[in-house]
Design brief:
about 300 residues, globular, 9 helices, seven-stranded mixed beta sheet, Metallo-beta-lactamase, Chain A, alpha/beta
């Protein structure tokens, strides 16, 4: 099972401005020489010595994750990252798509009108959500004056499926179970299973409930997960004023890993105000927390970046 992250930013797409990127490139050039490199032919070696995120940043697009296996896939949320999926045009031989919707905050649906298969005859798009109002909200995205093409004018056939929390559903070869997140507006994470591998998708989750007892039926999201994708837009200092906003912290993610014996977690929903350096500092803080409180657990962790692929 492959997990590809088409968008990992939270709240709104964000990129550095021109001057910000210039400053970032200046720092990279400084590092090139500081690390003992000096020749053009050494550039590739230098880049390979760094993480992809150190060079290119963590990404600009909002939440969109694709889970694929055996030639089939499902897409979780339609943030602006889904346009990157669409732009790849790797869907020409696949005329049917399956999209899970966690909730309707704009950063999770803003990219849907730009998903090209909507406009192609002979294509089918299936939406799945716990929310009964999904069809009406999606239809309203394709409506003037919000968007120039009306839903009725789409070339593809579009289907809407209501699923229930805590119930398993077979969707395009994957077993998918929704679980409620700790979020001010009703939001669901998804447990995706296939071939004895488990991906747990838990963004827009403040994680006020972390133990099995507190979570109750929602604890099923985390049980025996091979990879937990977790909202860490803030740190615990932020939570003093951002409590109730519906986003979590690295510390809470590590605690859930501890409570459920999980060994791999990726943090995401990166704050739109963050530069590359800001994200580095957030990651540095997470590393200090991990070293101080959780290192004995040997959890594999990192910050997710746009375009990253994890194989389970």
């Amino acid at each position: 099972m492959d997990i590809k992250f088409w968008g990992v930013r939270g709240s709104i797409p964000h990129s550095l401005d021109t001057h910000g990127w210039a400053a970032h490139f200046e720092k990279i050039m400084f590092d090139f020489f500081r690390d003992g490199f000096s020749k053009p032919e050494e550039i590739s070696k230098f880049i390979k010595s760094k993480s992809a995120a150190d060079i290119g940043g963590y990404g600009t697009a909002t939440t969109c994750v694709e889970v694929s296996d055996g030639g089939e896939s499902i897409i979780i949320d339609g943030g602006s990252g889904i346009k990157s999926k669409s732009d790849q045009r790797d869907y020409n031989n696949k005329k049917e798509f399956h999209i899970l919707i966690s909730h309707f905050h704009f950063d999770h649906i803003m990219g849907l009108p730009f998903f090209t298969p909507h406009f192609l005859k002979g294509y089918k798009i299936h939406y799945y959500s716990v929310h009964a109002e999904t069809e009406q909200i999606i239809r309203n995205l394709f409506k003037k004056p919000i968007f120039p093409v009306a839903f009725e004018g789409l070339g593809a056939e579009v289907f809407f499926h209501t699923i229930k929390a805590h119930q398993k559903n077979m969707i395009n070869g994957f077993q998918v179970t929704p679980y409620q997140m700790d979020h001010p507006d009703l939001c669901y994470g998804f447990r995706v299973e296939k071939n004895n591998k488990v991906y747990a998708h838990a963004v827009d989750n403040e994680a006020t409930r972390k133990s099995k007892t507190e979570l109750g039926a929602d604890a099923g999201l985390y049980e025996n997960a091979d990879l937990l994708y977790f909202d860490a837009q803030y740190d615990e200092d932020d939570m003093k004023i951002k409590k109730g906003w519906g986003h979590g912290t690295c510390d809470r993610g590590f605690e859930i890993c501890t409570n459920f014996g999980l060994k791999q977690i990726l943090f995401a929903h990166h704050d739109p105000a963050f530069s590359v350096e800001d994200s580095r500092q957030q990651k540095k803080k997470a590393g200090e927390i991990y070293k101080k409180k959780y290192s004995q657990l040997e959890i594999k962790w990192d910050f997710a970046y746009e375009g990253q692929v994890v194989k389970l």
